[in-house]
Amino acid sequence: MVFSGRAHPELAEEVAELLGTGLVPTSAYEFANSEIYVRFEESVRGSDAFVIQSHTAPINEWIMEHLIMVDALKRASAKRITVVMPFYGYARQDKKHRGREPISARLMADLFKTAGADRLIAVDLHTAQIQGFFDGPVDHLMALPILSRHVAAKYGHERLAVVSPDAGRIKVAEQWSNRLNGAPLAFIHKTRDEHRPNESVANRVVGDVTGRICVLVDDMIDTGGTIVKAADALMNDGAAGVVIAATHAILSDPAVDRLKNCPAAEVVVTNTLPIPAERRFDKLTCLSIAPLISRAIREVFEDGSVTSLFDGQAQ
Length: 315
Prior knowledge:
By secondary structure, this protein is α/β, with parallel strands linked by helices. It is built from eight helices and 14 strands. A seven-stranded mixed sheet has the order 10-9-8-11-12-13-14, with helices on both faces. The chain has a five-stranded parallel sheet with strand order 1-4-5-6-7, with helices on both faces. Strand 9 and strand 10 (200-206) form a beta hairpin.
């Protein structure tokens, strides 16, 4: 049985359709004091339940709804509860940078475990070690095959370079390189002020990008500051052009304006998060993540192999 919260119903409907089923009818609303109420309109006893909710703004509201849905399933005797979070909220708070900070990504995993989740499915976690925060199986899906197929089809005939916006994502850039005929790698050496969130300074390009179309790859675009500064640095270093590819299009203000006015020819993202009409712009290409999520759900349901979706590679 497939369930959806109210954060991104279009994605859940597409996933259910690809699985050849429908979403379970659900009543969900807020009380006058903004408390959330959820009730499923069909019996879920003994079911293999997949609860889909993407943690978009207002993020705390949708996470709470997700937790309440899991609790409702547990108390209604679902056999196994798999939480499907295309975007894992609080994933960037995965370690302490300074004293007296929380590790909120771990808290998230604990909340879902306590609510009754047996398993998590997530797409492109901010860091792979978050898989270890949850005490149970975690299927970490990669949007890389979907994004790289589009880039290869459109730009494969060009001289390409794969660029990571920071040194920490070189491993992902290597996987991109393998899918783009061994395109050379580069990365942006940057510094970040830990006292000022969502701000970074692009310092210099490490690697040769002269005369190449640079595929700038990241897991998410939030305010767009990091990725736009990286695109500017590449063009200043002699790149022939820039294509941005990222899984999660958070697109907080002023991301849309920044991306519209940046030198990138195309911004390729997936629909792990809803992108309203006012956040869409001419050079934005949004690819559907639903086929990947539906295949993963099918493999879990049939006790198959999720790793087989990625040529045996885990991330």
